[in-house]
């Protein structure tokens, strides 16, 4: 595979290393001075992974499509304002993108565990849900894209919640989910979902030890895009995870 990684930060370097370690060709491109990559630099890529910045995603995708590549993995967050533009570019030029605020397979499954927990504790008025996330000091977005996605899952599945509060509100509104963010040190990502009752508390936690899990997910998304023709437009990372689970079950059944 010939992969191009847009973004030479910690995530981009981890993804490039993962491609190289398994024998693929990986080219990593930092942010261009002009603000837009030269499509010629992207020619020949089988897949392009965006690990840059939210405000660069749409322009990066445009350059990728102009360069002839139609497979895109977006592991960048904070580009929601450009989502309509991204969808329009993909639809117009026949591109396919796997999108996730967090490319960790473990986090994708963690989100499903959280939904199951909400289904159990949500009907019980004595249990209040909350979400705490912790990232390195230099991470710009707060809450993180992963925290926003988890919060969305919780609110959508909870019978009493109607909104998300970002940071302390000084309110005890039972319809509001509290989301607290910590920015300190070098933590690559920790997310805790809890359900607190007067006499007990239940907590679910996902901790990223390093960025290798995100890199492994980026490779899985790239492989999924190349494995078969995919429908034009945006695909959730959950589709990749579903295929991984199905393949794992088939292997397990075959070895019984």
The separation of the N and C termini measures 33 Å
- SSE string, helices as H and strands as E: EHEEHEHEHEHEEEEHEH
Helix content: 25-40%
With strands numbered from the N-terminus, the spatial order across the biggest sheet is 2-1-3-4-5-11
* Poorly predicted sequence stretches spanning 5 or more consecutive residues: none
Approximately what portion of the residues adopt beta-strand conformation? 15-25%
Could you name the CATH class of the largest domain? Answer: Alpha Beta
CATH topology term of the largest domain: Rossmann fold
Give the overall silhouette. Answer: globular
Q: For the residues shown, what is the average pLDDT?
A: 94
Description:
The chain has helices spanning 10-21, 57-66, 83-93, 105-121, 145-157, 212-227, 237-254, and strands at 2-6, 25-29, 47-50, 71-74, 96-99, 128-135, 163-166, 176-183, 190-197, 200-207, 233-236. The chain is an alpha/beta fold and 256 residues long. The mean pLDDT is 94.
């Amino acid at each position: 595979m010939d992969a191009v990684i847009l973004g030479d930060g910690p995530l981009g370097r981890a993804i490039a290393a993962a491609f190289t370690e398994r024998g693929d060709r990986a080219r990593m491109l930092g942010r261009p001075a002009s603000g837009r990559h030269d499509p010629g630099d992207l020619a020949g890529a089988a897949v392009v992974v965006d690990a840059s910045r939210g405000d660069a995603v749409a322009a990066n995708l445009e350059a990728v499509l102009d360069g002839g590549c139609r497979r895109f993995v977006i592991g960048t967050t904070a580009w929601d304002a450009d989502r309509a533009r991204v969808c329009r570019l993909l639809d117009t030029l026949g591109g396919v993108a796997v999108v996730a605020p967090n490319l960790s397979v473990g986090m994708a499954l963690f989100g499903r565990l959280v939904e199951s927990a909400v289904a159990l504790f949500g009907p019980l008025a004595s249990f209040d849900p909350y979400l705490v996330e912790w990232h390195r000091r230099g991470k710009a977005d707060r809450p993180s894209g992963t925290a926003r996605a988890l919060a969305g899952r919780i609110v959508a599945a909870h019978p009493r919640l109607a909104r998300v509060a970002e940071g302390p509100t000084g309110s005890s509104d039972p319809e509001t989910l509290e989301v607290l963010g910590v920015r300190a040190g070098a933590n690559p990502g920790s997310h805790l979902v809890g359900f607190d009752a007067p006499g007990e508390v239940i907590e679910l936690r996902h901790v990223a030890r390093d960025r290798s899990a995100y890199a492994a997910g980026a490779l899985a998304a790239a492989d999924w895009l190349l494995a078969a023709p995919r429908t034009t437009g945006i695909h959730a990372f959950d589709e990749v995870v579903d295929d991984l689970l199905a393949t794992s079950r088939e292997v397990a059944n075959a070895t019984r």
